[in-house]
Amino acid sequence: MRAMNRLRIALLTHSVNPRGGVVHTLELGRALHELGQDVTVFAPARTGETMFRASSCRVVLSRVTGERQGMVHMVEERIVALKRALVDEDVSRFDVLHAQDSIGGNTLAELKEEGAIRGFVRTVHHLDHFDDAQLSHWQRRAWQDADEVLCVSEAWARTMRETYGVEAQTVANGIDRMRYGACADGDTSCLRERFGIGTGPVVLAVGGIEERKNTSMLLEAFALLRARRPTAQLMLAGGASLLDHDDYTRRFLSRAAGLGLDVSGEGTPVIVTGALPDASMPALFRLADVVSMISLREGFGLVVLEALASECPVVVSRIAPFTEYLDDRTCVFTDPNDAVSIAVALDKAIDGASGIDFLDATPALLRRFSWQSSAARHLDIYGKWLVRAPLALNP
């Protein structure tokens, strides 16, 4: 085993897209690197794709062709690609192998079964429901075969303990306050011109159109809000996902048409931006009058911290994990299943009557979550595990 003051760490993520788990991987890798660790990030990528954000760590992209159709084939191709990359990089040289999702978890589970590694760490951000038996099997195997399971919220750590009998440890996310603070780079005027943003107010939701993100209920609430504020616009940003949301999106668009809310282009009441350059995100938060995060299921909700660091009020579901770290001084809670409740909460935040304390309570909240403290917590867990049972074979 290598000296504990410098570990060779492999972090595995499922894609190069700007999703919460990928952000977590890159920011954790950066913080571990700054603490003197030797970190390599592994991610599958299609030809021509690059990691959405530059990294101070070494990044290994394993190419997938994407020629086979269907979710099962896509997941299988990514597992194979990650496994190939790890073998090519001599997987036995890593002290710590840490997967952030089911794709990476199954890659490491296979290598463990083959005796190529002695074990691995898995972070469960959240779990999904799959009708397909193979996808369900892969999701379970990815945490079941792990030697150490981590969660980014106590809510999910509790679910893993009480539902699945796994003693998961909580390791919180972080926030780069410099990136999203008052001195952040980025010009909002360019975004306003590009998407036809008018006088507003602007309601922003990040993550695209997804059932888990509760986008259709947000649409219903926005229709109610717009009856009072006819110049309001709803921006749905991001949405680069490996999961298939096409049916849900079609229903969303049909309902928007039924409500008389145009989604056809620039300057419309509802603006679907698609994936945006990473550099645009800080300006996007500053452009918004309120950020909506009314998810039905969430691992942590990094967007909430990003919005608050940008001094933009947030409306969030009154469910865990949000209720673990937020209160009435740092957000506006709402019932995610009630469009009227959501509309009232959005209106309250837009009016400046949210009660969010950006002078004291919000800065105090943000100080609690740093990637440096998250990295230190990870190192403590890695070290204790390595003492009990080394995670990787040594050359």
TrEMBL record:
It holds the Pfam family Glycos_transf_1. GO terms for biological process: lipopolysaccharide biosynthetic process. Residues 197-351 form the Glycosyl transferase family domain. GO terms for molecular function: glycosyltransferase activity. InterPro entries: Glyco_trans_1, Glyco_trans_4-like_N, GlycosylTfrase_MSMEG0565. Residues 19-177 form the Glycosyltransferase subfamily 4-like N-terminal domain. This is Glycosyl transferase, group 1. Gene3D superfamilies: Glycogen Phosphorylase B. Keywords: Transferase.
